[in-house]
Every structure is written in structure tokens, then in C-alpha cells.
Amino acid sequence: MPCGSITISQRDLECRDVFGGIEKVYFGTFSSGIWETPGGTTDGVIDDATAALTIYGYDTSRNVSSLTQTINASTENRTIFFEQTLTLVLPGLDGTDQVELLNLAKGRLVVVVKDVNGNYFVVGNIRGAEVTTSEVTSGVAAGDLRGVTLTVVAQEQSAAPFLDWATATDGVTGNVTVG
After folding, report:
1. What's the CA gap between 70 and 169, in Å, rounded?
2. Rounded to whole angstroms, how far apart are CA atoms 148 and 140?
3. Residue 173: its pLDDT value, please?
4. Residue 120 carries which DSSP code?
5. CA 117, CA 20: separation in Å to the nearest integer?
């Protein structure tokens, strides 16, 4: 008996009206159960956090940062997981930034990624996300990056769910506050 079945009858090619890239990334402190379980929804969208949550935004330059989600499956072990990798490039760096980056690297994180199409994704929604590398560079040539490239990784049982930003941050019933 098969473990699952294909539930989508077909998927047509989308119109060429989407754009690649990340506009902004939000970080907060992870706690278990902070997000409603996307498995409880039928559309793969999280409506809100389950408790008060403050997140802090980081802007990024265009054409430099990305969110990649890779499905990892083992035929031998019958396991599957999604590795969600955020590569965030932050130009410029000062002493305050260095302290903040160290603090990000110390703990498990709540990560919300906003792409340039206005979609919000919750990275590490069940198990949290962690900084795996932080590379600070001075650059070589005049036009090179002088700043930091931060890599944040989460391993989850499903792809990063979408977040209904308007509902989660509405200030009346939403639990997410942007600090």
C-alpha cells in the first residue's frame, strides 16, 4: 500500500509575472510551539503565532540574498526532510552589528522571509533555525562587498509555510509585533 497519493490533478505553467529575490528578513527568539501547525491548515498558510512574538527586520540589497529549500530523501532509511537555507548579505558593518550577529548565532531563531513578490515564509517553523556561518569580508576591489554574509539553516518535515502577514501583524488580534 502506498504511503501517499498525488492529490493535485495538474499544475499549469504560471504566467511570467513573478520576480526572484528577497526584500526583507525578520528575526526573533524561537520557542517551541510558537507557530500554529501548518498541517492544521489545508492551504499551507500560517495565520498567526500562538503567543506574543516580537521580530526585528533586516533590509537587504537587491539581487544578493536568497532562500533555498531542498528536499532530502533517503530511499534506504525511508526518511524525508526539507533543508531551508537562508543566505543573507548585509553590506556594511560596525561594532553594534558585530554584537547583534553574535547574538543571532548563539540561539535558535524565528525567521520570517519576505520575498520581492510580497510573500512571507516562516523558516524553521517547528524546530527553529540556526546561524551556521557568518562570513565577514572587507572586499578586495573598490566595488566589492564590505559586510557580512549570514547563512541560516532549518531542517523541517515540510517546506517553509507561507505566513498571512496582514492577519499576524494586525495589532488587534495578531500576535506578531515588528520591533
Report:
1. 29
2. 14
3. 67
4. E
5. 8
CA dist 93 and 103 (Å) reads 15
Could you give the CA distance from residue 4 to residue 80 in angstroms, rounded to a whole number?
13
Sheet holding 176-178, edge to edge: 45-46, 162-163, 120-123, 109-115, 22-29, 53-59, 176-178
Strands 109-115 and 176-178, bridge-based pairing: unpaired
Residues 13-62 pLDDT 10s: 777 777 889 999 999 999 888 887 655 555 678 888 888 889 999 999 99
β-bridge pairing 45-46 and 162-163: parallel
State the virtual CA torsion across 111, 78, 36, 131 in degrees, nearest 10.
-20
- CA atoms 160, 24, 88, 152: torsion sign: negative
Nearest to 133 by CA among 159, 104, 156, 161: 104
pTM of the model: 0.86
Give counts: helices (H), strands (E), the chain.
2, 11
- Cα gap 47→38, rounded to integer Å: 9
Domain ranges of the chain: 22-178
Quote the CA–CA distance of 124 and 121 in Å, as a whole number: 10
CA pair distance 153, 109, nearest whole angstrom: 10
What are the residues facing 112 on neighbouring strands? 26, 122
